[in-house]
Structures are given as C-alpha cells and as structure tokens.
C-alpha cells in the first residue's frame, strides 16, 4: 500500500484513491505521419520498465481527478517525491531525463 | 546416468526409509563457453534446454539462474492449464502445450501431477455469454475441446457455486474445457531440470547475467556474477526481468512488469473438484490435492519488481471469491505472495529473434504462461536451433508491435490466466 502525496490537493492519501498512469513524459510525436511503422510502434508500445527509479504518472481518481508525477523506485517501492506535471518535467529534465 | 524412477524404485527405497536417493540434477560450475546459453531457470527456460537437447541434438548447453531453480513465477503461479484462447495463433500455441502436458509425466519420467479436472470460465452478463459462445465456437473450429453450459448445468457440476438470481453478478452460464486443469508447478521445473541434466545440460544457479557482449550486431557472450561466459546463441527466458535483460542489448520491449498476487488457504475437505474463473467478478479458485484453496485475481496496477503487492488487492480478491463461493467466508488464508509478471499490450507472449544476431527472447507471458511451459520451451528450442521460428510462434514476433498484427487475447486472458 502506497501513501502518495497529491501536489494539487497538497495532501498525503492512500493508494486506493489513485490510479496508475504509467511511464511519464512520453512525448506524442509532433508529426505522426512522418514516422515509419517502427518509430510509431515504439511510441505506442515500447516502455522503459526499469528496475530502479521510474518517473511515472498517477491520477487522483477519487480526489481532485488531476494527473501528477511521482518518482518511485520499482525495486524497493521507495518514493522520492511528487510533482505537478510541469514541475516534474523540470526535475526530470534536470536529471537528464534518465531511466 | 541417473536411473529412471519406477514403482519398484519407490518401493525399495521406501523400505530403506527413503535414504539413498540421488540428487535429481547435477549442479554445475560454469564452463568458459557453450553452444547455447539459456538465461532463466524457470519452467520455460528449463523446457527450452530440454527440447534443444532432446529434439535438436544440441549438447553443450547452460541454463543460468540468478537465484535458485524454479524460484521465479514457476513457483509462484496458481497452476491453471487450459488452451481455450480466442484467436487461432494463441489457441494453437496453447493447445500445442496442452498436448505436451498430456504426455509430460511419462516423457520426463517425473510426476508433474497434471490433473485434467476441467476449467470453467463463468459468464455473468449477456455480453459475457455472447463472448463465451464465440470463443467456444472458435475453439471447436481449432479442434480444441470446449462447450457452453447453462447456469443450471454449471450449478449441477459445482454445487457450492452461488448461482442465485439475486447475486450481484448472477451466473448465466460458462464455457467449460474438460481437458484443462492444474499441475504441480515445482515438479514441472524439477522434472525438466532432471531430464535436461540427463542430456548433459549444465544448470548453474546463483549466476546472474549482468551484461551482454555484443560485437558487429552479434551476441558473443555474457557477463555474469560468476564470470564471463562465451556463447554465440543466447535465449532469454526471464519473465518479469525481460526488460532488464533487453536493455543490456539495447533493445526496447513492449513489456511492463507488475506484481501479481496469489493466496492459499488452510487445508480443507474436498469441496471443489475443478477450476472456476470469472472475468466479470474477477477472481478464480481451485482446490489443491492437499485440500488448500488456491486463489488469485488481478495484477497490482503499478509496475514493480518487489514480488509483493498492495493489501487492498487482497481485499478485492477475497470479495470476488466470496461473491462466487459464500461458504468460503470462514476459510483462513495461510499464505500469500507475489510474482512479477511481464505484461504485453495484447496479453500475448513474445517468442522472437531480435535485431542482435544469435539473441532470442521468450517473454511477455504475463499472468498466464505456466500453462504454456512445455509448448513454449518446445517452439523456442526450434527457434534457437534453426535460427528461424517454429510455425506456431511465427506470429509472436517482436515485429508485430510495428506491423500492427497484435493478437488481442485480453478477453481470454481476462482474469489473469
Ligand atoms: C501469482 C501468479 C499466478 C499465476 N497463475 C498462473 C496460472 O494459473 N496459469 C498460468 O498459466 N500462468 C500463471 N501465472 C504466470 C506464470 O507463472 C508465468 O507466465 C510463467 O511461470 C513464466 O515462466 P518462466 O519460466 O518464464 O518464469 P520464471 O519462473 O519467473 O523464470 C524466469 C527466471 O529468470 C531468472 N532471471 C531473471 N533475470 C535473470 C538474470 N539477469 N540472470 C539470470 N537469471 C535471471 C529469474 O530468477 C527466474 O527464475 C501466474 C503468475 C503469478 C505471479
Ligand atoms: Zn488531488
């Protein structure tokens, strides 16, 4: 059971209030028609799925219903923090967009 | 060469208080190089090694395991075996496995306790029943045993099932596959290990693959916690850890690893002589030969490698099981655990060559690969030995995620398995 901090509500709540949104910061290609099938398939289906730190989205389903970003270690379930999408993007980029 | 097990050997060893049994397989030290290396000593990896040796005459094989043999999902699953999938590609692959299950105990000379007690998939809505009829018809066209049963017949066969019309999700009927059932999961790993070991396969435990040596687009060897091992053919069969291995080769996988939990109750008198699954209520149960209820449901939604899940999933699972079997409300659960399952977007496996020559992946079995163990090893061995897929796994290539030829089995895979 995770306790997640929703940066929109400013509160810690139990996991059951949230929905998992998968890997964060997968940019939708600006010109899909310019991609070949492999690049499009990569965008649609391929995932980092790391064993370690993972930037991921959660949505506060039974609260404010907004998405936010969590950095969590998938090997230990340790949580480094929660951010709004915009703030999280900055923190993610500052790390070099790794893992 | 180890002696075969027989009634006579059981009897005579029994007279001597079961002393004097030899270890079932040889524990090997890594050699500097092999013709084929299999990564992952779960059921699928061991089956691959066995069929490589038996059917394709490959002798110099190693199976590397980071932990202990059969300690992954092979030992964590709820052992349901069936082949009633919707699409031809999947149904024929699982049916290939089911046919091998039917002769596996004899073939391996190891009792895998395969018990064809039948599998029910319950329908609770009109749409469920339409889907069930469609799937049963598709199965029959593929030569797979399957039938549609109405609620009264389901009740007759499973008296303890709640078929009351006032149930929140009343049972309207079911599909039934008589040849489906369960098997002893550990025995499958041990049986394949013993049979492969007889052919000289080196089974190397506590040996984690940590890196891949790739030169000019070909695999040349592996870095492991027990040194470098050279091999020009490597098959990765690492279930939940497949993305981690693929990353070592610079390959991206359409896989997400999720915890899947299971539960076992205290032993009880026999009450359930078959396997019951429900997609809509989202749970499934069978009773082991020891009398324990073996129960499971859906995955934890987040990705994780922790081999444990969240408690609220337990609560949902218990609620689903009690909806189906109210009389289990007093059953005490003895054990609970999680395994890490490698889920794919179409709920179908990947049994494939890769862009790295000599490197093959067999993964993505997600919540339902135990039933495929012998078939999976069989077609993967063919793929590695010939550097070309078996006709039954051609459709399960990684390329389907760019061609768009997905094999959508979310309906038949439904509640995990
Ligand atoms: C709770 C639960 C219930 C399930 N119920 C069913 C069911 O009822 N029916 C069904 O058909 N399926 C079921 N499944 C799915 C089934 O268990 C799996 O699909 C199947 O066991 C996968 O087989 P495997 O041999 O590939 O996996 P595993 O047994 O997990 O083997 C993979 C091995 O690879 C090793 N490995 C990983 N990384 C490395 C590395 N870097 N170096 C060396 N070794 C490595 C692991 O330690 C592991 O032993 C269930 C799964 C779970 C978790
Ligand atoms: Zn909120």
From TrEMBL, chain A:
Pfam families recorded: SoxD
Example of a GO MF term: sarcosine oxidase activity
Gene Ontology biological process: tetrahydrofolate metabolic process
Domain of life: Bacteria
Name assigned to this protein: Sarcosine oxidase subunit delta
Organism this protein belongs to: Hyphomicrobium facile
From TrEMBL, chain B:
Keyword Cell inner membrane among UniProt keywords: no
Top-level class of the enzyme under EC nomenclature: oxidoreductase
Record carries keyword Cytoplasm: yes
Protein name: Sarcosine oxidase subunit beta
Catalytic activity: sarcosine + (6S)-5,6,7,8-tetrahydrofolate + O2 = (6R)-5,10-methylene-5,6,7,8-tetrahydrofolate + glycine + H2O2; sarcosine + O2 + H2O = formaldehyde + glycine + H2O2
GO annotation, biological process: tetrahydrofolate metabolic process
Similarity annotation: Belongs to the SoxB family.
Residues of the Rhodanese domain: 36-80
A single cellular component GO annotation: cytoplasm
EC number from the UniProt entry: 1.5.3.24
Compartment list: Cytoplasm
Cofactor(s) for this UniProt protein: FAD; FMN
Alphabetical keyword list: Cytoplasm, FAD, Flavoprotein, FMN, Nucleotide-binding, Oxidoreductase
Protein origin, superkingdom: Bacteria
GO molecular function terms listed in the Swiss-Prot or TrEMBL record: nucleotide binding; sarcosine oxidase activity
Gene3D superfamilies (alphabetical): D-Amino Acid Oxidase, subunit A, domain 2, FAD/NAD(P)-binding domain
């Amino acid at each position: 059971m995770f306790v997640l901090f929703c940066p929109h509500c400013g509160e810690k709540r139990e996991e059951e209030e949230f929905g998992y949104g998968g890997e964060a910061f997968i940019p939708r290609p600006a010109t899909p028609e310019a991609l070949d099938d492999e690049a499009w398939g990569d965008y649609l289906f391929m995932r980092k799925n790391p064993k370690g730190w993972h930037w991921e989205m959660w949505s506060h389903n039974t609260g404010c219903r907004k998405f936010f970003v969590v950095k969590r270690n998938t090997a230990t379930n340790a949580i480094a923090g929660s951010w709004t999408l915009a703030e999280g993007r900055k923190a993610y980029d500052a790390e070099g967009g790794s893992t | 060469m180890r002696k075969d097990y027989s009634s006579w050997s059981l009897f005579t060893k029994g007279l001597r208080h079961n002393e004097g049994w030899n270890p079932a397989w040889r524990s090997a030290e890594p050699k500097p190089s092999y013709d084929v290396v299999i990564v992952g000593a779960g059921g699928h990896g061991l089956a691959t090694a066995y069929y490589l040796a038996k059917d394709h005459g490959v002798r110099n094989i190693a199976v590397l395991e980071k932990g202990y043999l059969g300690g992954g999902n092979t030992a964590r699953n709820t052992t349901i075996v069936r082949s009633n999938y919707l699409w031809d590609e999947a149904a024929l692959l699982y049916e290939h496995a089911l046919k091998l299950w039917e002769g596996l105990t004899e073939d391996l000379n190891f009792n895998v306790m395969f018990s064809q007690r039948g599998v029910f998939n319950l329908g609770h809505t009109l749409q469920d029943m339409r889907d069930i009829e469609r799937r049963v018809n598709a199965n029959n066209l593929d030569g797979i045993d399957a039938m549609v049963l109405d609620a009264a017949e389901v009740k007759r066969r499973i008296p303890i099932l709640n078929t009351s019309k006032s149930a929140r999700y009343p049972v309207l009927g079911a599909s039934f596959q008589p040849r489906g059932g369960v098997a002893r999961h550990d025995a499958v790993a041990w049986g394949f290990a013993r049979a492969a070991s007889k052919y000289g396969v080196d089974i190397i435990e506590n040996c984690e693959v940590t890196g891949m040596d790739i030169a000019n687009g070909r695999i040349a060897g592996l870095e492991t916690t027990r040194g470098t091992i050279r091999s020009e053919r490597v098959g990765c069969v690492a279930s939940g850890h497949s993305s981690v291995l693929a990353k070592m080769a610079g390959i991206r996988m359409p896989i997400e690893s999720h915890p899947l939990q299971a539960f076992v109750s205290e032993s009880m008198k026999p009450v359930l002589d078959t396997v019951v699954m429900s997609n809509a209520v989202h749970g499934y149960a069978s009773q082991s030969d020891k009398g324990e209820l073996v129960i499971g449901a859906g995955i934890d939604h987040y990705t994780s490698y922790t081999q444990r899940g969240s408690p609220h999933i337990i609560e949902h699972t218990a609620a689903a099981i009690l909806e189906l079997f109210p009389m289990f409300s007093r059953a005490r659960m003895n054990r609970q655990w999680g395994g890490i399952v490698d889920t794919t977007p179409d709920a179908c496996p990947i049994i494939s060559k890769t862009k790295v020559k000599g490197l093959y992946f067999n993964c993505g079995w997600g919540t339902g690969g135990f039933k495929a163990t012998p078939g999976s090893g069989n077609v993967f061995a063919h793929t590695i030995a010939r550097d070309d897929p078996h006709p039954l796994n051609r459709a399960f290539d990684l390329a389907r995620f760019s061609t768009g030829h997905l094999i959508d089995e979310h309906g038949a895979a439904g509640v995990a398995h």
